[in-house]
Every structure is written in C-alpha cells, then in structure tokens.
C-alpha cells in the first residue's frame, strides 16, 4: 500500500471510530448482558482468525465504480439511525461502511475480508426478537405436551405451563430457544464459509439453523420434564437445567455437521507442493 493510501486509510479509520463510538459501546453492552448475542465477543477473535486463514487470497486491485456503493449505503443508514435514534441501523451501517472501505482500498482483493465483517450481523440485537419469544414459548410448551401425550403420559398444559405428575414447569422466555438461535446461525455461517461445496448446499445448511435450533430446544425441554418425572423437580431444575442448554446447543451443532455430509460440503484439499 502506498504512503498516501495508508494516510487516507488511517484518517478514514479514525473518522469511523469517532462516528461509531456510541454504537460500538451499545454492541459491547448487548454482547456482555444479552444472552441472545453473547457470541459477539467470540466473533472479535474469530473474525481476525478467518482473515488470517484467507490472507493469501487478499490482494490489491483498483476498485470498480460500484465498490463505493456499500460505503454510500452505509452512511445513508448512519444518517437514518441518527435521525430516528435507532442503534440497530447504526450497527448495520457500520458493517457496510467497513465493507465499503475494504472494497475502495483493495477492490476485488477485499473479498476474504467481507465475510468476517458481515458475520457480525448475527450479533446485532434485533428489536423484534423479544416479541418472537412469546409464540415460541407457546410452541415449545405445546410441543412438549404433545410428546408426552404421544407416550400416553398424563400431561396438561395451561398457557406456557406444562404439568406432569403433580409438577408444573413454566416455559420461560429464556426457554424459547432464541438464545441459541443467533450463535448457531453464526457458527453455521462460518462452517458454510470454510467448507467447499455448491452455493445451494450452503444456503440449505443455513436454512436448517432455525428448525434445528427450535427442535433441539424442544427436545431439551422434553428431557428436562422427563427427568423431573423420574427423579423429582429439584433434579430437573438443578444441575441438569444449568448444563442442558449448552449440551443441546452442541447437539444441534452436531446435526449441522451431519448435514454437511448430506449436502456434500467438504474441507478444502491443501494444494500440493
């Protein structure tokens, strides 16, 4: 990179840091305290690692005319976010501006940088996600009840409460499965990015994230209630309840890896010397 370009990049980065300092603090607060998006902290490490893995594919090329488009759209979203006091718009604006700067300075050679940037879209808090938790609570409760009825066990359901053998289990918002959805989406996107295969197969893998996340969560709740029936509600809501969320997250991730085989997604073969 020439000295002049380096100076321009430095001042551009400083300007972006000043413009987006508030939204960056907002993102860090969400990553620290919102369980739906805690994987954002992990992406701060994963993003640079992905760029390092693809460092050999990064090169400098004169940008095309359209490469300034993400930068323009990003600053337009920035103005809307400021006018409407909407931090989500500012966060998406930041991603577009960073991608636009990469394209302006590197041209087509910036492609390996773009995916790690847009990966952070899975860690931007969405305001409508909390409202989605309400129907998912009901879906989880009714699905668990249906599974016990299928087994011939006397279960009843009132609202989001599932009652079995005299014990009542409330399917709370945290049990809706949303706290595993966004991290699983981010991890699946990384898997699809690193593996080789058809674009349709990668899209299919990403499309499976929502049903697999919800199904694994429903199965987790079913097992929790079943343990409560066998060993008592204290056992169900004690240690198992604490670790089950992580266990069934890895269960869903294992299913994702299984589908990579079905979709014929493979690790890239190292080039021979």
Describe the protein in words:
With 273 residues, the protein is mostly helical. It folds into 2 domains: 3-123, no CATH class; 129-262, no CATH class. Helix content is 69%, strand content 4%. The chain has 12 helices and 3 strands. Strands 1-2-3 form a 3-stranded antiparallel sheet. A hairpin with a 2-residue loop joins strand 2 (161-164) and strand 3. The longest helix has 24 residues, at 239-262. It is elongated and about 75 Å long.
Can you summarize this structure?
The chain has about 270 residues and is mostly helical. The protein has helices at about 5-20, 20-35, 40-55, 70-85, 85-105, 110-120, 130-150, 180-195, 200-205, 210-230, 235, 240-260; strands at about 155-160, 160-165, 165-170.
The percent of residues in helical segments reads: 55-70%
Total beta strands:
3
Shape: elongated
Q: Into how many domains do the coordinates divide?
A: 2
Q: What is the rounded Rg?
A: 23 Å
Uncertain regions spanning at least 5 consecutive residues: none
**SSE run:** HHHHHHHEEEHHHHH
Major sheet: order of its strands? Answer: 1-2-3
Number of helices: 12
Provide the structure class. Answer: mainly alpha
Average pLDDT works out at 88
Note the beta-strand portion.
under 5%
- Please summarize the sheet with the most strands: 3 strands, antiparallel
